[in-house]
Amino acid sequence: MSNQSLVEHFEISLHAPCGEVSTSVGVPTSFVPVTAILPLMRGLGEEVQALELTRVRQTGHTVSCHKGCAACCRMLVPMSAPEAFALANRIDRLDQPERDRLLTKLGLAQQQLARAGVLTQLSALAESSDPPSDEAIEPLNRAYYALRMPCPFLENEACSIYEDRPAACRELAVTSPATDCQNMASQRIRPVPVALRISTALSLLWADLTGTAPRLIPLPLAVTWAKQHHAEHTRRWTGTEIFEKALDKVWRYLSQEKARRESGG
After folding, report:
1. Is residue 1 part of a domain?
2. Does position 97 have pLDDT exceeding 90, yes or no?
């Protein structure tokens, strides 16, 4: 989680629907920001999803996704508060010209969303104290996708923040033909199952730590949201508290997903 000198070492073993994930981690005992948990959470999410991809390939399917195939980069991407803070940190570390260029692109994206009449809804979603269900948000997803607006971080059909891309982007893969992805709303799209949605786990973690509602923040608004919530961004917790609460969210999500699959849901 961090380069802090005082750490506790833990062995993690998670039972995912497609297998077991085990790893070792050093957790700082000092006070750290919530973004310190992101490398661990991203790593766990990718290991769990790798098991799903292996299972898919073992059943004779081929994953169609590859670099340069960026049809999914026109979809509405939700981010958790910790991810939004981390993205704002990344942009702040850039040289001024590159920082200004990306902030301009984000501003233009928000202007396009405003002209399309969906910016107000997206802003309300980011600040909602009662996050809507997947079914309730589906019309907004479709309205956003209808714009076919490229992600502000897409450069030459490749992700310019690949190492720091949102968890939702890491989890999306399909086995349907790549040509079908020209319409990601099509019934022909066959997504690879996702056993652990890290953005959801991080949203629940943030809510637990702060005593607020879970947040799912649309990607084009994430940096603006993080700046508006700067005071929250400066809060610190012990590394062990963040770690224990994060693992609890992961374990609960995996348990529910495993039970759902076993019941045929």
Report:
1. no
2. yes
